[in-house]
Hints:
Number of domains: 2
Mean pLDDT: 83
Strand order of the largest sheet: 1-2-3-5-4
Distance between the termini: 79 Å
Largest sheet: 5 strands, mixed, barrel
Shape: rod-shaped
Number of strands: 5
Helix content: 40-55%
Oligomer: single chain
Amino acid sequence: MEEFWTSLEVLEKILWSIAIPSSVIFIIQTIMTFVGMDAHDGVGAEFDGSEGDSSPFQLFSFRNLINFLLGFSWAGISLSGNVESEALIVILSTVGGLLLVTVVMLIFYYMSKLGQSGNIKSEDAIGKTAVVYVPIAENRSRAGKVQMTINGSTCEFDALTDGGILKTGEPVVVKSVINGNLLLVSKS
Length: 188
């Protein structure tokens, strides 16, 4: 290893000194992102002075700094044996770093578009059949709960009835939404 290090030019030593730590940090960040411990959990550092900004696509962030250093250093290392001019190596490495930042930001942007909101509106329940989960008192005197499937998801709503007592396990039909997530149901 020492023989390898002494054979390098100054620019190559600088590039390797950037490449190794930035690669390790990049791997750690990637693992933390896929495990769910990314910057939104307080493990990241932002350099743009916008604490509390909820946008995940900030240009000046610790993640983008590491991505730039990773692209810059590895592009420079790969070019150092093939390009004679150190200035050209630095310019092309800078382009490589900026390109990597752009690609990673685009990947995270498009990954964020893949998620579904998961929001189910109580209005989607109107006219559907449900099953009483918690008994519902007669004539809107006490709310109970109903369970139903909407868009492939099992949902639970508070419910009232204008009729008699509805017992657990009884099938009901949703007539309307009274307020927010409170449904008016009747025997089916």
